[in-house]
Input
Amino acid sequence: MSDDLFATAADARLSGGHIDGRIPYLTVDGIFANPSAVRAAALALPYSSGTAHYPGRVARCPPGDASLTRFLRQIVGIVTSEYLPHLPPARNGESLSRVRGVDTDFAITDRHPSELSPNQRAPHIDAVPVFGLVYLSDPPRGGTLFFRPHGHAAGADFRSGYPRADEQLEVCGHIEGRFNRLAIYPGFVLHSGEIEGDWIESDDRFTSPRLTQRIMFFF
Output
């Protein structure tokens, strides 16, 4: 990988919104100076199966990449100054103010809707309270949906395909998955990838896959 692969663009644009009208998220459009090079380098990595909850494959950059380290340091700065001061306290009343660690990998969503496990047919919460995602698909392959449960919870066994609004779930937030957009959002709100369209049922899911860079923030 090149020394400046993960360089950020000088004209990246910061904006944001709210989930369920109260919990903030941030977006940074045009985050990478050369997103096509990032995508190509990421797709060349060796991928392996994801967790039981992830409907696809994941890969990590080789350790010690100085460009990636600089990028993550910049993103931690954005989270610390622009996001955490606006985030409501956690359920235990604790306010998040300092990022103690960060990790990242790349993920490809390529599981056919008919092959999903019950866990993959339901939205999830993350193991970290703040999560980052860079959408690296061109053409776009969907963003991120946030859900509010309603009605009587019956699990995901009755569902087919990827999570969407139904008698159990109401969509309460949406981040559009624009190419080269970084999204920073609360991992503690039910959410799922917005996986729709013919591509996920065709060979396009392999030949032109939905690629994201995942960034986990630890507190």
